[in-house]
Amino acid sequence: MSDINRLLVVDDQADILDFVATVAELVGYRVATADNAQRAFALLREFDPSLVILDLQMPDMDGVEVIREFATYGTRAPILISSGMDPRVLTSVEQLGLTQGLNMIGTLQKPLSLPDLEAVLKGQLVNAQEPTERDLRQAVEKDELTVYYQPQADLLLDGGVVPVGVEALVRWNHPVLGLVMPDRFISLAEQTGLIGALTDCVLKSSIAQLSAWRGQGHKLSLAVNLSPLLVKDLDFPDRLSELMRSNKVPNSELTIEITETAALEDPGLTRDILTRLRVKNFGLSLDDFGTGHSSLTQLYKMPFNEIKIDRSLGMELHASSEARTITRSIIDLAHNLGLTVCTEGVEQSATVDFLREAKCDRIQGYLIGRPMAPALIPTALARIVEHSRPRVATA
Ligand code: C2E
Ligand code: MG
Ligand code: MG
Question: What pLDDT digit, counting tens, does each position of 39-77 carry?
Fold first, then answer.
């Protein structure tokens, strides 16, 4: 059993504690359980969990107080809330935790389902080693970073789905840890100043790849994520244009995706750089819309031409009428402002039907393709075309 993976389960129901503990031990966690808040606080100190599953309704203290107490303790462990309460209440508790500096990673709806529980527990398993700054610096130097691509497709009103492009998503091919996902190293790169070098690698390799695909007859466009920390380099638009020119791809085929511009120290400088990117005909997309990271005011203050609805919303569309209402409003708002909309996290075909009806322009998600190595992209795109059946047959 693992010593690094320590799960603390807080719930007043003994059968739930037993159930979660049994599943977690099978997955590879060492488990501690608490059936009241005081015991949970004691275990935070003694057991130092690497993951917490927290029931919001405890008899001795309500969930909001527990969250506040956890924040006071300053735990960095990811926290999952498990509850049968209204999803809106859960979301506001999550926000509360986030604003107090806690690492809230989501909610588990009660009654708990075995596949959901197993999936989150496996997803949070920490490998023997967390990447360090030294590792990451070496990764950049030794070319261990690779780029995966996820298809994007336009929705046609006749029921067709047309692949139009890909988003570049960085991966780290670590010699010991295997393929490491960006959520585990982008913030490390940002904190250590390595994000500039990382982004240069991603831009160079993905633009060359785009050029190669276009040479083979795949008329694709490319989206690349840019850390908001990098939007202070006045030369960036020129360097990017030069990179496009040397790869013989028109600027209009590259979209820069960015979040959190509101949090930037110098909005004037940001606007200057973003506007120059648009003037040079690059696309500009506001990523993760619908989370705390992207806000409405950025839509009219910055020259975006697309918004991307966050996967957390996209993944809920088949199940939640509230998510559908919010999404419909975002799409209308975007269209009224002259922007197009791409929805991420599309995993269900019912979601595609809804999005088409709501007039969403573009989709991205596991249903049409997961992020994959570049060699697999042509086949994946052909499969999207094959499965896209127009609903209205022409006579
Ligand atoms: P993002 O830009 O919002 O990218 C979309 C993320 O959603 C990707 O996660 C993708 O795998 C995931 N996703 C897409 N469709 C689905 C779906 O249907 N279901 C589910 N469950 N997930 C889906 P990934 O690759 O782990 O990337 C996470 C984040 O890391 C990205 O979010 C982006 O913010 C950041 N990132 C990735 N590459 C780069 C990069 O080169 N530079 C910077 N600065 N950030 C990057
Ligand atoms: Mg993105
Ligand atoms: Mg996104």
Answer: 999 999 899 898 999 998 888 888 888 898 888 887 878
Ligand 2 center from residue 61 Cα (angstroms) = 39
Distance 260 CA to ligand 2 centre (A): 12
Domain spans of the chain? Answer: 6-123, 133-386
Instruction: Just give the CATH number of 6-123.
Output: 3.40.50.2300
How many angstroms separate the CA atoms of 298 and 260, rounded? 9
- Is the distance from the beta carbon of residue 360 to the nearest atom of ligand 1 less than 6 Å? no
Taking only the tens place, the pLDDT of each residue in 86-129 is 888 888 888 888 888 888 888 888 889 999 898 888 888 765 46
Fold of 133-386: TIM Barrel (3.20.20)
The response to whether residue 186 sits with its C-beta less than 6 Å from ligand 1 reads yes
Flag whether the pTM goes above 0.85. Answer: no
Chain length of the chain: 395
